[in-house]
Design brief:
Largest sheet: 6 strands, antiparallel
Number of strands: 15
Structural class: alpha/beta
Radius of gyration: 48 Å
Shape: elongated
Distance between the termini: 23 Å
Strand order of the largest sheet: 2-1-4-5-6-7
Amino acid sequence: MLYALSIQSFVLIDRLDLEAATGFTALTGETGAGKSIILDALGLILGGPADRKQVRIGADQANLSAEFLIAEDHPAWSTLEAHGLAYNRTEMLLLRRVVARKGPSRAFINGQPVAASVLAELGEGLVEIHGQHAASQLLRPSRHLEMLDAYAGLSEHVRSCGEMWRTYEAARQARLDLEASVKAAQDRQDWLAFAVEDLSKLTPEAGELEVLVTKRSALLQSERVTEAIGEAVTALREPKLEQALTQAAKAVERIVRIPELEAIEDGVSDTASAAAEALERTLIELAEAQSTVHALARYSEHDASQLEMVEERLFAIRAAARKYDSQPEHLAETLRRFQRDLALCEADSDALDAAKATEQKAYEKWHQVAEQLSQKRRKQAKALESEIRDQLTPLHLGRVSLQVVFDAIAEGESGARGLERASFEVETNPGAGFGPLKAIASGGELARFSLALKCVLSQTGSAGTLIFDEADQGVGGAVAAAIGERLARLSEDRQVFAVTHSPQVASAATRQWRVMKDSDDQGQVFSQVAQLDDGQRLEEIARMLSGSSITNEARAAALKLLEAA
């Protein structure tokens, strides 16, 4: 619902801040006071076209904003999300429009700049304006089928029909994809046959590449180990090494055995003994090294032929991968894919027949549900036409008739909502022939007709705010009272505003705003709005009854209207 409306520097309005409430609010005032300006401002906030002439004289720009309080599951939040706008479902929704005298107009949602078209898209689900020039959703044939379904309580049937249609569409697409795959495979059948034969000879296996790479690395390391062991064995087999050490050991031993060695020079005896011991240890360690290296030679089992086989296999796999535009590790899957494609060429028509049968079965299920939906729609359409007739007579539109027209969906059109489109058509006078709702030329008649439709279709649409612009135009008395009664009834579960000149309509409202025109000290004219208390309402309705000179009789009549409401 509309929670607050702020208008600054717009046409005749200098500054206006209004707080709205639930129920039925009547906007009254003398002709030309500015009631339509408020609707124009709201229409601009809801994405209507901007005109710099609407900026009040003396101001650089007009600022208009509206706050809405809507439920957490309202479709408006999804609209914001679709446009990438930030929002909080527990807070107010703020729409703002700025019209500059120079430069383009600007639009904002929750302080975020947007295109005016986004405001218009959002506004459709927030406010419905019914009047001569209002683009009410009731006048859009594209929405009529949805309204009929909501009136008839067919939402579950429509949902089921949509599911069946999507199942059929999926089966149809699967059949088309299979046909395309078969044709594509047949176009390259010879090449596929060669590729399958070629790769089958290679017999690539999943995971084989990784195994081969690991094995090749191990074999290469084995080759290096064998080479190193061979070098060590050859070096330790050198006979001169052992002979040299033995000869040196004997020579040092002779030194050690020289008598009275200590007398020759101090320390010679100890050093010779240490040298003899070192050479003896070296001969022992040399023998141990030779033994250990010979033991290491047992691990030298390099197989050059096996390494050659592994490298040849790796080369073949990588060459085939390049040849068939595949990753080497995916070559086995490439072969299976080629085999499947070749099977499509060589197989009989069973697969296609099965796909066509699945598609036909899905179509028949959808068509059966859609037929049932159509029957329910046509039955409920008669009930809708009857209810509309009952509403039109008290509204002085008894000569107007409504009919629901069904047209079959065109070939290629989505059948998610069934077999047909629906539109509401009217006949303004008996025998004149039926035509679109906009054929009702009179603004007052169009507003009253919209009121009758909305009373019958009260549960359709997500807009929580309804605005009726002079639905009482050209009528009075019992007809005006009937209009007021229906507006009050609509306001039981929606917020309703009505611009009215009728005291009968105004008295049926929960509250009343009076729009007045005044002028400042400089003689500049401006409009202002006042919310009336009970006493002021009595005076205003009396003025509406008697004109500028309010009589006691008019006050008595006004009191009677208010008490009867």
